[in-house]
Amino acid sequence: MTSLPHPAAAHAAPPEKGALGEPALVAAARARLEAVTAGLDEGHPAAGELDVAVVVADLDVAAFVGGVADFTLALPRNLHDGWYRTFTRTLFLAGRPANAVAQHRYRHLAPGGDLAWYGPAGRDELRPLSRLLRAFRGAAPVRVPDEPLAVALTGPATRHTAHAVLAIGAVSTAEYLVHVHHLVAEAALRGLLRPGDTLRVEHRPALAAEDFREALDPANADSVQTRIAPDSTESTVLRLYGVLISNRP
Amino acid sequence: MVLHALSAPCALAQSGAGSATELVVAPVTITPTKPLTPTHVKGLVWTDVLAKATACVRGVRLVWNNRMATVTTQSAAFWRYLDLTEPHTDWNRESEIRIGERYVAFHADGHAGDRRALAGYLARADEDGWIHPAGMRMLELWRAELALLGVRDPGLAEDRPLAASVGATLAALAERGLLVDHRCFGGPVYLDGTRWGLPLRLLIGEDGLPNYLVPILRELIPMIRPGRSFLLPHDHELTADYLLVERVLAAFGADVARLALGRVPVEGVVRSSRFGGWSGTTLADLSAELAAPDQHDGAAYRLGMRLYFTGTLPRHSAQSFRMPLLRRCVERAGRLLEQEPGAEHRGASREDLQTTLARWHNRRGYVDPYWLTTSLLGRHPLPFTSEIRAIYT
User: What global pTM score does this model have?
Assistant: First the structure.
């Protein structure tokens, strides 16, 4: 069983260049690339590339995390593969869902009404919405609750809990939205999250690859979703931005 | 709040004096950084004739606050450039052309500059009414030209704070769901007119600097009250922004109309004054050529300029500036002014004028300068009465 390392074991700062964990990150990133290229084996092969747009008026982290999962889990299966194969490409737009709805009907609205999801759809279909709104810009460091979150996903309770740990050190609000959206959406498309699950979310300044050796091992990929991307402060270095583990019996 | 209530220029005003409603005319302000070009003159003359003619049938107030133009990054960036490049220049001795040449050079240099440094300039302009000496000089030169042109000074020499603070204005917009405020994420602030299908419009950048729409909203929103309607004359190029301003003011309960005026191309080219190309066509150039030789103490110049800019250039006109036609308009003005006093009642009667003004006012809420001016020039012209003289000279 894959498990999360104890917070005390996590490094307090982003890993240094060329850190020991790098080969593990490369291996995990490659495993994700291969999985996405292969697509989802659900009997609904992608007809074309699909994108998602999220309209952001305000950010409540729990509403956002829950919203990504609920939106993804409620999608018709025929839309899964087309979005998965674009690496769950998502456009974040500044706007107020309540106002934009007169022109564009959303597929999912987070509780509170400050976040709305559109698509998955072809890029042309989302273009009128993106022309009406503006790309979300949030360069300030993301602010998250101090305590871990327990996000209950919509659906009859399953009593299953998945665990996510997210890096926030030197992560802007805009970057946080991107990383978390990919992590949770892909986990939901791959069946690691299901309706009624609980997703426990913990934030840490940084996630050191050596602390997640087990989770990063491609042999455990069936129960793990990772978010690995070039470090925003040093683009030639990969950084671990998120890990989601779901050990379903 | 200090506003310019127009006293009606004509005896007809009595009929409108009892009107319960008031028209607030709020033209887009011009940053005092460059000479007045034919496009500016068209806007000024249209607004002047409109306000004076409409004041014959209803109450009119003209809104002009220099800070709507000076609390903008356009002005601040130019003035910072002048401080950096010419800290010792005595601007009181400079001509508008020479100041305008600096403005063109500033834009040619691609001066986005250090936007953070502009915050101090904006704060001084906003809090203290500060205007760079080059801007003060430009306003002084404009006032002299507008006096010559008979355009009532809309308030170029006055200073007053904008009616509401940035904070109060944003709070009022947010309360009505008209704002997307992402400052807490390090992002911008947008005006949200998406409910009307209008795209999100930036108000305050990520750097915290407001754009020119912010002082407009700060000044106009607090003026909204029952019994007042608003008319917003603006450049045609600003239509997208002004559509949004119109809707936003309406959302606060205002009765609003816009008047989009097409720019006046020079030699077939419409361009922003930041690129220059105004040589020989600035208001000072026109007055030097046409007002000085005027045998009617400048009245033929004033009337001729109005005949040209409001009578031959319809609101959406794309016609290039034509000096020969303007000259003919001034000559024609001279002939109109020379009519013997009894001639003014030939053709249509004075009552016809009153009826006509009231009819136009009823249709749009204001008297359209193009309609009025062309009515003076047709085969059966309105009489060139003392009231018309007061409006046009």
Answer: 0.90
